[in-house]
Each structure stands twice: as structure tokens, then as C-alpha cells.
Design brief:
Elements: H1 5-15, H2 24-61, E1 69-76, E2 88-89, E3 96-97, E4 100-101, E5 110-114, E6 124-132, H3 157-183, E7 199-201, E8 215-221, H4 233-237, E9 241-245, H5 254-257, E10 263-267, H6 271-276, H7 278-283, E11 289-293, H8 296-299, H9 306-317, E12 322-326, H10 328-342, E13 351-352, H11 355-366, E14 367-373, E15 390-392, E16 395-400, H12 401-410, E17 415-416, H13 418-431, E18 434-437
Parallel strand pairs: 8-9, 8-14, 9-10, 10-11, 11-12, 13-17, 14-18
Antiparallel strand pairs: 1-2, 1-6, 3-4, 5-6, 7-12, 15-16
Region (Disordered): 77-100
Biased composition (Basic and acidic residues): 87-100
GO molecular function, one term: alpha-N-acetylgalactosaminide alpha-2,6-sialyltransferase activity
């Protein structure tokens, strides 16, 4: 069965430890540490232990060090036969001084090669390789072809200990560096709000990345005509994060709605409106983070999602633009929230959740305190003295807000349940730090 891109992303997310389980990095670092120990640290530590143990034993027995090691090797290049048969012997001799026997305890670090004239069969070479210790006077007056020093094999215990600790520190630094490379592009489950994992970044490279933002105080600015004439622009701009919806503009309405936009939540139906004014929304507002939502048929990521394909082209064109899309799991979660609050299945009633509903969910995910501007309560339109304002503050000749709300609330198919959603927000306001302004709500 062929996996779609979205399904593949979910599989990769599982493999890369995107869940709360132990990340793959831990296993990689563990294996790397074991390999490093076996190849580097283990042999060095073993060698140091043997040297320390030998020194201790010699100190206990009173033995002295400094003997010579000598060995002879006969090598033959022709096939072995008769007197020309290859011989190999290794003879360990102990040097004596004044008749006292001294036991071999070290490894020599001077190598001499002595040529001897010996009768030998044809194609046979004889060489006397003598390893002499550093004892003064132990080097004979022979012809030296090569002299090598072997510091690793003749180190003192303190030197070996320093080397061991140096290699240990180097290994730890390497492990830390690998850990930084692995984790620098992956959000940590311990520090990132798990609720924000429902907002996946639109990336040309299909890189798995989630929204990671937190605000102590957020201003959710409604697109309602209630914002006209309230003069809340300065108050809104002083808020830490400002959240707007769809294509609601600020230019020309700064006094009432402010100028700043931190996050803009956009419906799939409003994407063409943003693309029609691409320079204003995506080029001049490059610092704004966009969060898009829509049904699966329009947002699928296998090349057949019409709206997602448009957004992907924008992400390629504007590389610095931060655009996210609600995952299918997040949309299903929002549906379940609506059903739990109302007891009604959204799909069976033929309704669609509004952009305002998704915006309120996002605000509760990322904000400690929320101030909502220009949103009416569920009983507003039933009051006799309610004001008649346009549905959108930037479309003053459009249908009135209450008329639009009433139509959608009672339509059979394809409408938004605006009034029902407002009753849900009133309940949330008693459970979270949410305040409604212009107009104020009586909770």
C-alpha cells in the first residue's frame, strides 16, 4: 500500500521519537559510547591497570627494573626444505650485574639492527634484531639503521593516567557535539507544549516541525463590526501577542484594531483572498505567523490538496515565512471538543466549525491570559436593544452580524453554529483566564 506524504510524516514522527517516548538520540549516543569505549578507552585503561599492577608487585618483592630483551628471527623467502627450512626463535635474556640476577620488567624503546655474516642456504636472510632497554651502556657499538621511540608502551603511570583522562574528556565532547547535531532541529517534548504539536509547519523540504510559541497575554481580535469606533488599537498593540483571523486588515483601522499581528488564523476559503493581496499579507507582514485550517480534501499533502499546494508554493517563494497547518488529528480533536460541550456531532448536524472556534482553541494552547475584542455573547442578538453592526468591520456595506449569525445557526447544511460556539466560549471563560471586551460579557 502506497503511503501518502502525511502518513509518511506520521511514521517518521514515530521513528524519530516525536512522541513522549525515549528519543532515538539516546540509543545512538549509547551505541557510540560503547564503541568508543571498546576501541579506545578500554585498551588504554587495561594497559594502565597492568602497569600499575606490575609496579605494585615489584615494589612488594623489591625487584628492580631495567633488563634487556633480545630476540633473533630467521626468515626465509624460498620454500622450506632441508637446511634452508625457516626457523623462528625468540630468546629472552636477562642481563646481570655483579652476579645479581635482575628480572625483566619493562619494554625497550630503542631498536637496533645488527648485521651478521652467517652461512645460510640460498634465498635465506638472517637478521639479528636486538631490543635494548634504556639502561646506560646497554647499546652496543653496532650499525644503527633505525631508532624508534615508543612512548605509549613506556609511559609512566601518571602519564598514562593523564592520557586516559584526556581521551575521556575528548570522547565526552564528541558525544555532546553529536547530541547537539541530532537535537538542534527537533523540539524537545519536555519543553514544548504538547498541544502545539497539532500545528505542523509547511516546509518545502517536508521537514517535521511544530508551532512553538508561548505568550503570557494574548489579544484575540474579532473581525466583527463591533470593533468600529471602540479606539482599542493602542491597548491591543501593547499586548504580548496579537491574534487575528482570515483576511482582516489593519491598514486604515489602526485606531480601533491596532497595527501588530503576531498570529493570523486563516480558513481554507480565505486563502484565495490572501493570495490576491500577496504583497500585503506575505511580503510586508513577513514577521506574522500564519495558521491555516481546512478539510482533508483541500489540505491533503500528497499533491492532490488544492489549498495545500498553493500554500506550499508560497512557502517556497517566501522562505522566511512561518506557515503552519492544523493536523488532521488536531481537527478531529476540535470536533470532539465541540461534541463534548454540546452533546451534538458536528458532522451529523451538517455544520462546520468556524475560524473563531479554531482561534480560541489555539489561544488556550499558547496563552496564559486571553483578552477577546469585539466578540458578542450567545444572547446578544436576542436582546431588543442590540446594536446593528456589519458582519465584518472592513465590509461596512455587508450583511449585519446578527442576521448572519441567525442564518448560520439554523441552516440545515453547511453553516457555522456561531451562537452555539459563543455559549461554549462563555463556559471556557469560567475555567480559563479569558476576558471579553467591546462588548463586555456578563458571566
Amino acid at each position: 500500500m502506497k503511503l501518502t506524504d502525511a502518513k509518511l510524516c506520521e511514521e517518521l514522527e514515530c521513528l524519530l521519537g516525536a512522541s513522549e517516548e525515549i528519543p532515538l538520540m539516546v540509543s545512538l549516543l549509547r551505541e557510540l559510547g560503547l564503541i568508543t569505549w571498546r576501541l579506545v578507552m578500554g585498551p588504554v585503561a587495561n594497559r594502565m591497570w597492568k602497569m600499575l599492577k606490575g609496579r605494585y608487585q615489584r615494589a612488594e618483592t623489591g625487584e628492580r627494573s631495567g633488563p634487556a630483551l633480545r630476540f633473533r628471527v630467521l626468515s626465509q623467502t624460498a620454500p622450506s626444505s632441508g637446511s634452508g627450512k625457516a626457523l623462528a626463535e625468540k630468546k629472552l635474556t636477562e642481563s646481570r650485574k655483579d652476579g645479581e640476577k635482575r628480572q625483566t620488567s619493562g619494554i625497550a624503546f630503542i631498536v637496533t639492527i645488527k648485521e651478521e655474516k652467517v652461512e645460510k642456504p640460498a634465498n635465506t636472510q638472517l637478521a639479528d634484531h636486538t631490543l635494548l632497554s634504556s639502561t646506560p651502556g646497554s647499546v652496543p657499538d653496532n650499525r644503527h639503521y633505525n631508532i624508534h621511540k615508543l612512548p605509549l608502551l613506556n609511559m609512566r603511570p601518571k602519564q598514562m593516567l593523564r592520557l586516559w583522562f584526556s581521551m575521556l574528556i575528548l570522547t565526552l565532547l564528541l558525544l555532546f557535539w553529536f547530541g547537539v547535531l541530532i537535537t538542534r532541529d527537533s523540539p524537545s517534548p519536555a519543553t514544548q507544549n504538547s498541544s502545539l504539536r497539532g500545528y505542523s509547519k509547511i516546509s518545502p523540504h517536508r521537514k517535521i516541525e511544530f508551532l512553538d510559541v508561548h505568550c503570557s497575554h494574548c489579544a484575540v481580535v474579532s473581525s466583527s463590526g463591533q470593533m468600529l469606533g471602540v479606539g482599542a488599537g493602542d491597548e491591543i498593540d501593547r499586548t504580548g501577542c496579537v491574534i487575528r483571523m482570515n483576511n482582516a486588515p489593519t491598514r486604515g483601522y489602526e485606531k480601533d484594531v491596532g497595527n501588530r499581528t503576531t498570529i493570523r488564523v486563516v480558513s481554507h476559503t480565505s486563502v484565495p483572498l490572501l493570495v490576491g493581496n500577496e504583497k500585503y499579507y506575505f511580503k510586508q507582514s513577513a514577521s506574522t505567523t500564519y495558521v491555516f485550517w481546512g478539510p482533508k480534501r483541500n489540505m491533503r499533502q500528497d499533491g492532490k490538496g488544492i489549498i495545500f499546494n498553493v500554500l506550499l508554493k508560497l512557502a517556497i517563494k517566501y522562505r522566511k515565512l512561518n506557515m503552519y497547518v492544523l493536523t488532521q488529528d488536531k481537527i478531529e480533536y476540535c470536533d470532539s471538543v465541540f461534541q463534548n460541550e454540546t452533546g451534538k456531532n458536528r458532522m451529523k448536524t451538517g455544520a462546520f466549525l468556524s475560524t473563531g472556534f479554531f482561534t480560541m482553541i489555539l489561544a488556550m494552547d499558547m496563552c496564559d491570559r486571553i483578552s477577546v475584542y469585539g466578540m458578542i455573547d450567545d444572547n446578544y442578538c436576542s436582546r431588543a436593544n442590540h446594536s446593528d453592526v456589519p458582519y465584518h468591520y472592513y465590509e461596512q456595506k455587508s450583511i449585519s452580524e446578527c442576521r448572519m449569525y441567525t442564518y448560520h445557526e439554523f441552516t440545515q447544511r453547511g453553516g457555522h453554529r456561531f451562537i452555539t460556539e459563543k455559549s461554549i466560549y462563555a463556559k471556557w471563560a469560567t475555567q480559563h483566564n479569558i476576558q471579553f471586551k467591546h462588548p463586555a460579557w456578563q458571566l
